[in-house]
Amino acid sequence: MNGLLIVGAGGFARETAQAVQDAGDVKLLGHLDDNTALHGTEVDGVPVLGGCDLVHDLPEARVVICVGNPRDYAARARLVRRLGLPADRYATVIHPTAAVSATSQVGPGSVLLAHCVLTAAVRVGAHVAVMPHVVLTHDDVVEDCATLASGVRLGGGARLERGAYVGSGALVREGTTVGAWSLIGMGSSVLGDVPPGEVWVGSPARRLRGADAPALDELATRTVGGPLT
Predict the structure, then answer these.
(1) Helix, strand, coil proportions of the chain in percent (round to 5)?
(2) pLDDT at position 222, please?
(3) Which helix (H) or strand (E) holds 216?
(4) Which helix (H) or strand (E) holds 59?
């Protein structure tokens, strides 16, 4: 069976389904979700076919994993590792209104939603979630399983390490690194490097506390089930 399976049936998964439908070049087979109450139902007209492990019963289908939220932004990495699929099973979903330069790269399993911009020589790793109206400028690097919420702006040469989460409307100064599995609060302005596994908020952003347990657990796990950026 050819086509695309979206793992997850929440908000991000629904947005990705809409992006796939807007592009119109891939057959969307349906959602997979471990919430058994959703099985056999439809979400925005798209069927929920069964649990996440159904990907193994449909080996010809491409897959994209669309789970995670600020309370548990490590969920995507856990599912990648649990499913253990090869990189070539994963699709890359790019909304038709996104602007991706010829010198930029986007890895397998990543999703770029409407009106994202990648200007020049941007590298986006695998299983990255890029929400609407994100701007990534020259030489930015976004490592695997990172999340950029709506309206995020990264200055040139910034780096988001593995699993970092940057909240809506946040700004990251040029040449700055946000450490692995750290979280930047919405509307924050990051003016200096953020260590791994911390929560920073405000303008200018300052350390609030350590990251929650799911993110810290992933920080101690050096692989996510495939090649890393």
Answers:
(1) 20, 30, 55
(2) 64
(3) helix 213-219
(4) none
Sequential DSSP letters for 64-88: EE---BTTBTTHHHHHHHHH---GG
Q: Which two tokens stand for residue 56?
A: 């193994």
CA distances from residue 78 to 112, 134, 198 in whole angstroms, order as listed: 21, 25, 19
- How far is the C-alpha of 89 from the C-alpha of 60, rounded, in Å? 8
Neighbours of 227 (CB within 10 A): 12
Question: For the whole prediction, is pTM greater than 0.90?
Answer: yes
User: Which single residue is written with the structure tokens 């596994």?
Assistant: 197
Residue 221 binned pLDDT confidence (cut-offs 50, 70, 90): confident
Average pLDDT over residues 125-146: 98
Q: Angle at CA 24, nearest 5°, toward 113 and 133? A: 15
Name the token pair of 78: 């856990």
